[in-house]
Amino acid sequence: MPTPCESPVVIISDTNLDHGLLRKNANWLAGLGVKDMTIRYFPARSLIELIRMDQQRPYPVGASVLREQLRKIQPEEAYWCAIEAALLGKIA
């Protein structure tokens, strides 16, 4: 049975994970010998739903910030492409 040091887990979490940054991190991890990476993708909610939720917060960020964050979200496939390229040794 592997010890915790022999099978570490790295979690990269971000509200709007940039697929370019993910690609860079995945390349770095692959260079360290990581052979298995996975993604847990959470689809975006509608802008209206996000605005309603935001209005309930003590410090709302506002519709324009939420709209910009939604604009940055990539389809799940973009994140998988970054991971697969790193695992195949491709500079993507």
β-sheet strand percentage: under 5%
**Count of DSSP helices?**
4
User: How many domains, in number, for the residues?
Assistant: 1
Unreliably modeled segments: none
How do the SSEs run, as a string of H and E? Answer: HHHH
Which structural class do the helices and strands define?
mainly alpha
What is the 3D shape? Answer: elongated
Write down the overall mean pLDDT.
Answer: 85
Helix percent reads 40-55%
What profile does the largest beta sheet have?
A: none
- N-to-C span: 35 Å
Strand tally: 0
What is the alpha-carbon Rg in Å?
A: 17 Å
Which key features would you list for this structure?
92 residues; mainly alpha; 4 helices
Briefly say what this structure is.
This protein has 92 residues and is mostly helical. Helices cover 48% and strands 0% of the residues.
Structure description:
The chain contains four helices and no strands. The protein has one domain (19-87). It is elongated. The chain has helices spanning 19-31, 47-55, 63-72, 76-87. With 92 residues, it is mostly helical.
